[in-house]
Amino acid sequence: MEIDTLCLHANNIEDKFGSIATPIYQSATFYHNGNDEYSYSRLSNPTRSSVENIVMKLEKGKSCNAFSSGMAAITTVLKLFKKDDHIISSNDLYGGAIRLFNNFSKVEGIEFSYVDTSNVDEVKKLIKSNTKAIYIETPSNPLMQVTDIRKIVEIAKKYNILVIVDNTFLSPYFQRPLELGADIVIHSGTKYLGGHNDTLSGFVVTNSIELGEKITFISKTIGAVLSPFDSFLIERGIKTLAIRMERINSNAIEIANYLSTVKEIKKIYYVGLESHKGYEINKKQSSGFGGMISIEVESTELALKILNNVKIFKYAESLGGVDSLITYPIKQTHADVPVVERNARGINERFLRLSIGIENPIDLINDLRDAIYG
């Protein structure tokens, strides 16, 4: 079954009344009637099981767990590691992940080394006897670095190291890291999977039953699981994932090409531009470029002018929905990253991140043009 069909037909719930939509089993507990599959919703719930099964199939995995947010998913994965374990991580990450690593996981004794994981040679240099995982985002947030997943996997297998990939930006529609050899895939399902900015969720998909059992044990112990109603909303969102991603991708390419002609924009970060350093790698491991574009404009004043003057784009945190959003990372997604680190990576007062939606691209381009020149 092709992935666009799977988005609609991968669920495993057969309702006795013939409901097309998966029912919302809004129950905390289940009585024993000879079927021991469900007993308590923190452990498992039929509606959550349905959306987990869909995401697992989309990612071509062997297990999937759904969580109350993307950060709950990342936190659960970090619980696989113990004091004195070492993790190599992309140095360009969502700010919430950096906050978790630096303020909680390090306190628990886990050691982190940050590097541009698109530079495989630099990754190799950081491997030590206690290195247990390589954690990457590709494309990364917000600088759109592209990491060659196959090459990272090749290195990791030599040292029995796990490869963890945050696949939020491209979704399983465009990229499936498990097929490239990764061990664990993480999603903020709040973003493209849900697609409507109306619910939080997170997913962890693994390439092995054994890893999946470990994640399940941690999940039921911590208890940050996805609710039945939110499971229903994410499953409903996934039904349109394919058509949303196709429109978002084509819109983003058109908008990135327009932005390339604007002299007031000094840098454009979009993996769908042939000028992007990771363009060819992304083409080899993905079937699309996604809808995330970052730009650096010529002045702080212009950045603030754009934020205050856009009409169709909404000045808001988050990404991946049907509505186009524009984000100011230094004030929002990366506000907790130390200023020195932000500036070293180019995330400054002139830096903006765009999440392209499904509106008409002409309207989006006109909105940006009016915000810049109006």
Mean pLDDT: 96
Q: How many structural domains?
A: 2
Would you identify the regions where 5 or more consecutive residues have pLDDT less than 50? none
Q: Could you give the count of β-strands?
A: 12
Please give the CATH class of the largest domain: Alpha Beta
> Roughly what fraction of the amino acids lie in strands?
15-25%
Largest β sheet strand count, sense and barrel closure = 7 strands, mixed
Helix content: 25-40%
Q: How is the largest sheet built, in terms of strand order?
A: 1-7-6-5-4-2-3
Radius of gyration: 21 Å
Q: What is the count of DSSP helices, taking H or I runs of 4+ residues?
A: 14
What name does the CATH topology of the largest domain carry? Aspartate Aminotransferase, domain 2
SSE arrangement, N to C:
HHEHEHEHEHEHEEHHHEHEHEEHEH
CATH architecture identity of the largest domain: 3-Layer(aba) Sandwich
Question: Structural class of the secondary structure composition?
Answer: alpha/beta
